[in-house]
Design a protein that fits this description.
- About 85% of the residues lie in helices and about 0% in strands.
- The chain is mainly alpha-helical.
- The protein starts with a helix and ends with a helix.
- This is Cbb3-type cytochrome c oxidase subunit 3.
Length: about 45
């Protein structure tokens, strides 16, 4: 019984995290974060 409740809670948290990560409002923020390592390399070389 308890393991079923825990599994359900974890599934709901996973789906909520997935929805948050793939939200269109987060796209610009994640795109900027993806470019950070490349921007740091350019700064070091200059």
């Amino acid at each position: 019984m308890v393991s079923g409740i825990v599994t359900t809670i974890l599934l709901v948290l996973f789906v909520a995290g997935w929805v948050w990560a793939w939200s269109p409002k987060r796209k610009n923020e994640f795109d900027a974060a993806a470019q950070m390592p490349l921007d740091e390399d350019r700064e070091i070389r200059q």
